Each structure stands twice: as structure tokens, then as C-alpha cells.
Amino acid sequence: MKITEIKGGVTAAKGFEAAAAAAAIKYQGRTDMALVYSEKPCHAAGTFTTNIVKAAPVKWDQKIVKESPYAQAVIVNSGIANACTGEEGMGYCKETAEEAAKVLGVPENAVLVASTGVIGMQLPMDRLKKGISLLKEAKGSTLEHGTAASKAIMTTDTVNKEIAVQVELGGKTVTVGGMCKGSGMIHPNMCTMLAFVTTDANISKEMLQKCVSADVKDTFNMISVDGDTSTNDTLLVLANGMAENPEITEENEDYKAFAKALNTVNTWLAKKMAGDGEGATALFEVKIVGAESKEQAVILSKSVVTSSLVKAAIYGHDANWGRILCAMGYSGAQFDPEKVELFFESAAGKIQIIENGVAVNYSEEEATKILSEPEVTAIADVKMGHATATAWGCDLTYDYVKINADYRS
Question: How many contiguous H segments (helices) and E segments (strands) does the chain have?
Fold first, then answer.
């Protein structure tokens, strides 16, 4: 199957529109609300935060995804998270859905909502409702409309994040496009992210949810910036069927091709979030190879990518391999440290650091050069089998503390 990347985001698939609006929810002088809309009803799937403290929009969306036959619109605001806001916060979700239903002409239970920003603040509903009207006036299906939406959902992100790909299913060209935001409070188990993926694929609700739930394990659940699992993590996938491919109702070849396309989009978005971690200067990738099971490889890779000491060493371009071996050692996964091989790799080259658990005679200067690139990979071979896993994170810098010390002010 051939997956082709094209220019675009959430408006790339047939029938989807998007918009951005400046509603002054918290920020001044920038857009802070976004709309994703489909001209036809969509099957919806989603995955959400594992944090016990769940924001009101998460609870609302979980119910819509589970119980509503279809969805047609997503209303997003940045600046205020609508988390830890009690019954009032749930009321805001209902008010938002009611207003969007009235303005957009869709059922209330077809409206999904999402929020990101400061926890504990109440939403200014008068501004948010006005913003919904502004979104309707601004919505369109061009690339620019999708890009505007991707910028409106940013908080501490330094760049917007959007991608689109195409794949052929049953003789029809199917498009999958997505956008996301996420920079801080990001940790495996869905991270502090909002991600929205749209597709014109014709796929049943059951198979869409199955595909999304399976894929998130290898994409969004494999990234970390700071070890904090957010209250608002949401991935929503909308499929409107407008590509008119034969409906996917089982795990056939078309399902596998669609899953590959979705994985391409989600992996790209996940890596962009990890690389745009608050204050980050480098995307840090950790590959575990030669594991005896996928579970072991996942545990080891996550342990390394979340280690503050390892992340600090990456920031300092320091091949401090002992920290990586140490992080693997306390992960809880069993392996023989005296069999481990470790390599560093980037656009500047590849270098072996340890063999059978002991340092080889490598050049510190060459290692530093390799670790000075904006994307750096550590590869650890535990020599126990053929399973692999990859996790993504970023370096830990002074700016991370600066950004989060005054986030509310």
C-alpha cells in the first residue's frame, strides 16, 4: 500500500471545513477558538486522558463518542481548560453544544467540544458563544482555513502542527488529515494534547474506534515532555464516508491500509508535539530493539525518554550513556545489562557507545557532534528477541522551568 503525503490538515478530506476566531477567551490579539465541521454526519471515535481528574470537555466527548450515532462539529477553545470547574463546567459544555447546534444547524448531540489552557478558571460563555458565530462566518474548506484552525488551538506551542495523507481504498482515493496542539504537561497515556483527525473514508463506527484505540498505543501514548499526564487529553477522529470507498466493516486489506494512513498521520503529529516540548531544542527518540516482547520494549523506551537526567544530558549534547542504562535498569523490565549495546544517531552520523554493557573506545567529540542535531536518536539493543518499540520526547532546558513558573500570569 502506498501512503502519499499531501499539503493540508483537517480540511484536506472531502466535505470538511474549518475556521479560527479571536474571542478573547484569555488571550488578546490572537485567535483562540477553532471549528472543525463536516457537511455530512460523521462516525466518531476517540481516546482520552487516563488522569482521574478529567476536564468537563473530556467527559462530554466520551459520552458523545460512545452514545451518539454521529458527530458533525467540534468547537475548540484555547487559554482556559474548563478543568476542575465542577457542574458549572459541564454546563458550559452543554451551552457550547446548544449554541453550536443552533448556529450550525446540527443536532446538539453531534457537537464535540474541547478546551486547553489554565486549569480551574471558568469560561466566559458570552465571549465563547459570540466566538461560535464568528467561526460559522469564517469557516471554509481551503488549506488556509485548516491552517488557521491549527494555529488557534495553540497555547505554549511554538509552531502549529498539521498533516494530510492519501491512500487508495477499493479504487477510491481516501484522505486522512489532522492537526494537534501540545507542548507541556505531556506524558505517555495520551499526554496534554488535543488532536483532531478527519477523513473521508467510509468505515463503520466500530471499526473506526478499534483502529484508533489500537493506533494510539504506538503513537500518542509513546511521547513525553515532562512526565505530567493532563486533564484534557483528547484525540477525536471523524469519518464522513464521502470518498465513497466500500464501507470497511472488518479487518480486511482496506482496513489495514486505512490503519497505515492513520498511523502515518498520528506518528507525525505525535513526534511534532514531542519535538515542540516547552523550551525544547531537540526531538529525542528512543528505540529499543532485540526485546523479547513488545511490552518489554515499550517499558524500556518510555523509561529512558522520561528520565530527567537523560533529557538534561541530551540538552548538554553529552553522551552520558550511564544515565540511559540506569533508566533502563529501574524501568521494571528484566534484561541483562551486560549484553546491552547502545548507539547514538542523528543527521550527523551514528556512533556506538557501549557494547555488552561496557563503553567502547568512542570519540566524545564525534558523539557531541551527533547529539547537537535538532533530532537525536538513542538505540539500545538488549539482545533478547526481535520485538521493538520507539518512544519520543525532548531535551530538558532552562526555558521549561521559565515557561511553567509563570504560566498563569
Answer: 11, 15
Q: What is the pLDDT of residues 118-155, one digit of tens each?
A: 888 999 999 999 999 999 999 999 999 999 999 999 98
Binding residues for substrate, by number, are 155, 181, 192, 278, 404, 409
Q: Answer yes or no: is pLDDT of 409 > 60.
A: no
In tens, the pLDDT along 348-371 reads 999 999 999 999 999 999 999 999
Which candidate in 192, 199, 264, 267 is catalytic? 192
- Helix locations, 159-252, DSSP H: 205-216
Give the domain ranges of the chain.
Answer: 4-275, 283-405
4 tagged catalytic? no
pLDDT at 210 over 90: yes
Binding-site residue set: 155, 181, 192, 278, 404, 409
Statement: 4-275 belongs to CATH 3.60.70.12: yes
The CATH H-level (homologous superfamily) assignment of domain 283-405 is ArgJ beta chain, C-terminal domain (3.10.20.340)
Q: Which of 83, 36, 35, 80 is nearest to 59 (CA)?
A: 83
CB 11 within 8 A of CB 141: yes
